[in-house]
Amino acid sequence: MLKLSANISLLFAELPFLQRFEAAARAGFAAVEAMYPYDQDPAQMAEQLEAHDLEMSVINLPPGDYSAGERGLATLPGRSADFDRALETGLAYASQLRCRRVHLLTGNLGRGMTFEEVHPTLRRNIARAADYYAGHGILVLLEPLTREMLPHYSLTRVEQALELIHDIGAPNLRLQLDLYHTQQEQGNLAALIERHFDDIDYIQIAGVPGRHEPTVGEINYGYLLDLLQARGFAGWIGCEYVPAAGTLDGLAWARERKLLQPRGDRGKYHI
Ligand SMILES: O=C(O)[C@H](O)C(=O)CO
Ligand SMILES: [Mg+2]
């Protein structure tokens, strides 16, 4: 049976952040993921996870200066002290949240730089992150993101991520396949899933265009979820989308597929 995780940076945004855990549990999720939880108290988050019997399935590592457009530091020579601090902060949160996965955002390409030019720095930093987290039993995930959303991002294609993963060869370095991003960057999703199935630890879903419910848009998620089910995909599937209307109404697709069994009274939240 496929397992869904609620991205509580985007889902249940009708509620204050700490109330989203209970809402996700009541909706039937067994796990939640969060993009950048670093403005939250991890002890309070851990309490919510415990109280509602939820797993924290993945968090992003700190991205650097988000408001300045940074999305990771691993491509940036001269930022190794900041990169190390991001690894430490990520570990502190992951440990407290008992989260077994961190997504390492790789960073932008500097002006006029190519992927090939940043590759040595990127490879060194990814290897360092994998080594740093290995001792703590935490997986480091690489996720190709689309230039439609982040025009200067460095890691955009599945093959780039896999080349780094295989070349570095760390057992805790794995692929996070976000089908929303990959559809826009290269498409051919079913073939990619089949071809690279054994490398995929984690999947994220959203409709294209718009990043709304997976039922809306050009991706046939019914087909892809059937394929993942048939292949016995055992990892989490993160619902990382912006609900077009209310979160709960927008989850009808998951209830219909019996992927969510609501645990309680949804009336409480009016969402
Ligand atoms: O945007 C995404 O799809 C990533 O999963 C992410 O969280 C980086 O912001
Ligand atoms: Mg994603």
Q: Ligands in the structure?
A: the ligand O=C(O)[C@H](O)C(=O)CO, magnesium ion
CATH topology: TIM Barrel
- Count the domains: 1
Under the CATH scheme, which class? Alpha Beta
Low-pLDDT stretches: none
CATH architecture, please?
Alpha-Beta Barrel
The dominant shape is: globular
The whole-number mean of residue pLDDT values reads 96
Determine the number of helices (DSSP H or I, runs of at least 4 residues). Answer: 10
> What order do the SSEs take from the amino end to the carboxyl end, as H and E?
EHEHEHEHEHEHHEHEHH
| Alpha carbon gap, first and last residue | 27 Å
Helix content: 25-40%
User: Please, what is the CATH homologous superfamily?
Assistant: Divalent-metal-dependent TIM barrel enzymes
Question: Total number of β-strand segments?
Answer: 8
Rg from Cα: 18 Å
Quick one: biggest sheet? 8 strands, parallel, barrel
